[in-house]
Amino acid sequence: MAEGTKSKFDGSHPILIIGAGVVGLTLAQGCHEAGIPFQIFEKLDAASENSQGWGLTLHWSLNSLERTIGPKLAALLPDMCSARK
Known about the structure:
- This protein is mainly alpha-helical.
- The chain has one domain (about 15-85).
- The protein has helices at about 20-35, 50-75, 75-80; strands at about 15-20, 40.
- The chain has a two-stranded parallel ribbon with strand order 1-2.
């Protein structure tokens, strides 16, 4: 946002997040931490239908994910992520 401009977001409606992949869930966690209401829309019925995205893309966004979820949750990532092993 340009300097001197004001956001028109007043919190009365949730942020709509399309997709529950790495980026969508990272954005949702950031909204949650900031107290911003959000709603996630995902076309797949189950995570197992398209789970390869985590293995292919998580290492590219790991630093951003760690900053977004904070140190407490980030400490759990090495046990769940092959990018650090």
